[in-house]
Amino acid sequence: MLEINNLHAEIAGNAILKGLSLTVNAGEVHAIMGPNGAGKSTLGYVLGGRPGYEVTEGSVSFDGADLLELEPHERAAAGLFLGFQYPVEIPGISNVQFLRESLNAQRKGRGEAPLSGAEFLKLARAQADALGMDHDMLKRPVNVGFSGGEKKRNEMVQMGILSPRLAILDETDSGLDIDALRTVGDGINRILRAPDKAVILITHYQRLLEYVRPDFVHVLADGRITRTGGPELALELEAQGYGALAA
């Protein structure tokens, strides 16, 4: 599904990714762990197409297409979803309005018919129910006045509605209490545990991995993946820290 080969990227002239390679197949969950400044968020931003991040070398293919040649909205329509560590607030635009426009724009990009208002509301309410989110929150401006946990739950509802093929989740566990962490983990499993989907979880800690068991755990240090293992690697990192294992 996703093939990253010798990826180099920089921002404002500072090299961040320095030869990162990674293969993600359909049906797999990959966790990427590493110290601050290693390049984890940069990887997510580069894959999502965030402006300001320049790829200087390497390639990325997504379902056989050159991902780096696609605009961000084209990447989304192709099935890529980027979940942010700190979801942004969008005053003046309701969740319902934002999500219906987003979904129908993606459907248009894929040559599919748009959902009617009634069809979309049925889908949105079903996803909100599955995540335990009050329907009234769908009417509120996107993330405005939401707690950290509510923002992450709202992001899971967005992901359920858009139903991406590949989700890149940047520290989705950040700021979550135990109950919210379990809810988010259940949401990831429900939405993305499928033979035709895949997940990249970017995280500092293994606690989310107790709910979303990865197939592979990668250590990212100094802009490249330095070690790969199974779920047990996350426990080693938790016990010993990155200094002992990243090299």
Q: Main attributes?
A:
four-stranded antiparallel beta sheet; 8 helices; 247 residues; 29% strand; ATP binding; ATP-binding; FeS-cluster_ATPase_SufC; alpha/beta; P-loop_NTPase; Fe-S cluster assembly ATPase SufC; six-stranded mixed beta sheet; Rossmann fold; globular
Instruction: Look at the structure and give the CATH class.
Output: Alpha Beta
Average of per-residue pLDDT values: 90
Give the CA-CA distance, first to last residue.
28 Å
- Which strand order does the major sheet show? 6-9-10-3-11-12
Helix and strand string, N-terminal first? EEEHEEHEEHHEHEHEEEHH
Number of strands: 12
Counting helices, strands and paired strands, the structural category is: alpha/beta
Quick one: overall form? globular
Overview of the molecule:
The protein has 8 helices and 12 strands. With 247 residues, the protein is an alpha/beta fold. The chain has a single domain, classed as 3-Layer(aba) Sandwich (Rossmann fold). The chain has a 6-stranded mixed beta sheet, with helices on both faces. The longest helix is centred in the middle third of the chain and has 15 residues. The relative contact order is 0.18.
Tell me briefly what this model is.
With 247 residues, this protein is α/β, with parallel strands linked by helices. The protein has helices spanning 40-48, 72-77, 95-109, 117-130, 148-162, 178-192, 231-240, 242-245; strands at 2-11, 14-24, 29-33, 53-62, 65-66, 80-83, 90-94, 141-142, 166-170, 198-202, 216-221, 224-229. The protein is globular and about 50 Å long.
